[in-house]
């Protein structure tokens, strides 16, 4: 099993805000680079988002009070993952590298691109943070966690 760094957090808001700031800066650069005052700010944002982050495909399953998230992340090394989670959310990040060593010949076409992989998932049911496990094989990142047990709370009703 590959060694994957995982961090439990109270909140992922700061991480997500940093990511949005990067996208916002790039979208503004695209806006400034246009030759015409007319344009489409939405297209600038979408283009910036695609340039700044790569969002991997995921599959989320629930079985027997267990949640499993499988993310397609080919070409990423296990050591490059930064996985952060709260009882309600999951953030998967990694820097993606791609090089063309000259000793391997001249590249005629390349559709690989380096960049930042980022994917957030909000769980419909809270997970037990102490049960989170990760495994990475054949380009698939697999995270599992037990669904948190909800303890019933008794509320005392007082007459007004």
Please report the total strand number as a whole number.
Answer: 9
The CATH topology of the domain at 53-146: Immunoglobulin-like
How much of the sequence is in beta strands?
A: 25-35%
Main CATH class of the domain at 53-146: Mainly Beta
Residue stretches low in confidence (pLDDT < 50, at least 5 long) are none
Whole-number average pLDDT?
Answer: 86
What is the CATH architecture term of the domain at 53-146? Sandwich
- Please work out how many helical segments DSSP would assign: 2
Can you write the helix and strand succession as a string? EHHEEEEEEEE
Order of strands in the sheet with the most strands?
Answer: 1-5-6-7-2
Largest sheet: 5 strands, mixed
Q: Look at the helices and sheets and give the structural class.
A: alpha+beta
**Straight-line N-to-C gap:** 59 Å
**Helical residues, percent:** 10-25%
Provide the gyration radius in Å.
21 Å
Globally, the shape reads flat
Topology:
Elements: E1 6-8, H1 13-33, H2 41-52, E2 53-54, E3 58-63, E4 66-72, E5 81-85, E6 89-96, E7 115-122, E8 133-137, E9 140-146
Parallel strand pairs: 1-5, 2-7
Antiparallel strand pairs: 3-4, 4-9, 5-6, 6-7, 8-9
Helix pairs in contact: 1-2
Any descriptors?
9 strands; 160 residues; alpha+beta; 2 helices
What does this protein look like?
By secondary structure, this protein is an alpha+beta fold. It has a domain at 53-146: Immunoglobulin-like, CATH 2.60.40.790. The chain is 21% helix and 32% strand. It has helices at residues 13-33, 41-52, and strands at 6-8, 53-54, 58-63, 66-72, 81-85, 89-96, 115-122, 133-137, 140-146. The strands form 2 sheets. The chain has a 5-stranded mixed beta sheet with strand order 1-5-6-7-2. The protein has a 4-stranded antiparallel beta sheet with strand order 3-4-9-8, with no helix packed on it. The mean pLDDT is 86.
């Amino acid at each position: 099993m590959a060694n994957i760094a995982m961090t439990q957090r109270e909140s992922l808001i700061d991480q997500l805000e940093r990511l949005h700031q990067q996208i916002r800066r790039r979208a503004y650069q695209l806006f400034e680079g246009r030759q015409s005052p007319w344009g489409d700010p939405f297209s600038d944002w979408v283009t910036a988002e695609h340039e700044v982050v790569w969002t991997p495909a995921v599959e989320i399953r629930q079985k027997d009070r267990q949640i499993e998230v499988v993310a397609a992340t080919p070409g990423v090394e296990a050591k490059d993952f930064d996985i952060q989670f709260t009882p309600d959310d999951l953030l998967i990040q990694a820097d993606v590298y791609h090089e063309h060593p000259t000793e391997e010949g001249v590249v005629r076409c390349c559709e690989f691109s380096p960049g930042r992989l980022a994917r957030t998932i909000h769980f419909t049911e809270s997970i037990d943070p102490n049960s989170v496990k990760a495994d990475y094989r054949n380009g698939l990142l697999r995270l599992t966690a037990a669904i948190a047990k909800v303890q019933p709370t008794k509320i005392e009703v007082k007459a007004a």
